[in-house]
Amino acid sequence: MLKIKGTFILLLCICILACCEISEDLPDNTVPASFCRTVLLYLGVDNNFRAEAAEKIEILRENWDKNTDGNLLVYSDAGGNATLVHIYYSAQKGNVADTITVYPNENSASPQTLTRVLNDVKNYRPANSYGLVVLSHATGWLPAEMSKPTPVLRSIIWDTGTSEADNYMELTAFAEAIPYKLNFIIFDACFMGAVEVAYELKDKADYIVASPAEVVSPGFVYSTMAQHLFQPQPDLTAVARNFYEYFNNQSGLYRSATVSVVKTAELENLKTLFQGIAGQARNDTGFQDLQCYGYGSQKIYFDLGDYVQQSAPERYMEFQNALDQCVIYKAHTDSYYSAGKPNTLTHDAVGGGEIAWYFHSKHFEIEIYHLFDGYISIVD
Questions:
Q1: What are the residue boundaries of the structural domains of the chain, listed by start?
Q2: CATH for 37-265?
Q3: Rounded to 10 degrees, what is the CA torsion of 239, 241, 242, 243?
Q4: Omega into 151 within 30° of 0, i.e. cis?
Q5: Which residues contact 262 (CB under 8 A, 6 or more apart)?
Q6: 291 phi and psi angles, rounded to 5 deg
Q7: Which residues are paired to 132 by β-bridges?
Q8: In sequence order, what are the residues at sequence separation of 6 or more whose Cβ sits closer than 8 angstroms to the Cβ of residue 192?
Q9: Fewer Cβ neighbours under 10 Å: the N or C end of the chain?
Q10: Model confidence at 24, in pLDDT bands (50, 70, 90)?
Q11: Per residue in 27-52, pLDDT tens?
């Protein structure tokens, strides 16, 4: 019995040592499964933002906290083959950015591509909630054909590496391409902080974080983003505040930031109130220095609060209260970057600097595009 027992122990030790030795050569399967939240960063940068793909991925990898309960995935189309990368902590390797899927050369501005990637992400890392961060060129809700000859508006995501005619995605197509409800969408892209954008996406996301003006590179602060997004309740206010504070500490043209966090559940009430106010103004309402946003001197978008303040001042506070229910955080610098020039934000025109959420069109029954004559016309 002693001989048999000794032989058994010896064999057991050999097996244990062998397993330890073999495990060092096995693929790293230590990535923890998390069902709390899955976040996708969608890098539609097959354009002049190509260099930002590797940069953003590396920043996220370096700053990943190993105790984070969540899944961070990055889709990157920077020309050539697109990839899906998983960022996580490995007990063997530390923080890693692991390429889990390589796609063929494709159009990241295609709605079909966005839908497939979002489904791939959900299948790979299912979770209780989902978030989306989009980095690309964008111009809000205006369809491209409405912007000719200039500026070249492309709505959201621009892919210059494809021969397809549709190398940009309209806002409506973007909304339709999202296959499941998201907790939030963060737009690291220009001109997406519009009420029209938020309303178009109200059934797709609970919160929208975006800028109503141009976003100066390097955009949002990725070094701290993950720690805020993977809180039990995503701290979107902190994401927006970090963005604002970073650029508010810059100088010259780089001191430019406008940002808001919108709660989409309150949009229907705001729409109902606004339609009653706008119906009183009609087409003959004139405006003095209505706060506008756009490229350089082109007045493409107008400030929603300023419009109400000038067209129906007796109902402005009522509207402001409803707006405050939608916009849970807003901030802006004194001026914003526009086509290489600083444009001053008229604080009196935006309620003493309190309103940082802007624009309008079909859903709220207002036409505001191509307005160079100082008028806003109501759509019947």
A1: 37-265, 267-378
A2: 3.40.50.11970
A3: 90
A4: yes
A5: 193, 198, 207, 208, 209, 210, 326, 327, 328, 357
A6: -60, 125
A7: 40, 185
A8: 138, 140, 156, 208, 210, 211, 212
A9: N
A10: very low
A11: 445 566 788 999 999 999 998 899 99
Buried b (16+ CB within 10 A) or exposed e, 187-226: bbbbbbbbbbbbbbbbebbbbbbbbbbbbbeebbbbebbb
SS3 (DSSP) at 173: helix
Give dist(CA 309, CA 291) in Å, integer: 11
How far, in Å, CA of 320 to CA of 358, rounded?
Answer: 13
What is the rounded CA–CA span in Å between residue 165 and residue 141? 19
Quick one: residue 55, left, alpha or beta (phi over 0 = left, psi -120 to 50 = alpha)?
Answer: alpha
At position 85, the amino acid (one-letter code) is V
**Contact (Cβ atoms closer than 8 angstroms) between residue 195 and residue 210:** no
Mention every residue, 6+ apart, whose C-beta is less than 8 A from residue 179.
Answer: 115, 118, 119, 122
User: Using N-to-C axis directions, what is the helix angle for 316-326 and 304-311, rounded to 10°?
Assistant: 160
Q: How far is CA 68 from the centre of its chain?
A: 21
DSSP-derived pairing of the beta strands 81-90 and 94-105: antiparallel
Q: Is 286 helix (H, G, I), strand (E, B) or coil?
A: strand
Those residues whose C-beta lies under 8 Å from the C-beta of residue 149, and which sit 6 or more positions away, are none
Spatial distance between the Cα atoms of 322 and 272, rounded to a whole number of angstroms: 10
| Best CA proximity match to 227, nearest among 59, 45, 32 | 59
* Residue 269 identity: N
Structure tokens, 357: 């959420």
Residue type, 18: A
Transcribe 52-68 into DSSP letters. Answer: HHHHHHHHHHHT--TT-
Amino acid at 213: A
pLDDT tens-digit map of 176-218: 999 999 999 999 998 888 888 888 899 999 999 999 888 999 9
**pLDDT tens-digit profile of 129-167?**
999 999 999 888 766 555 544 455 567 898 887 665 568
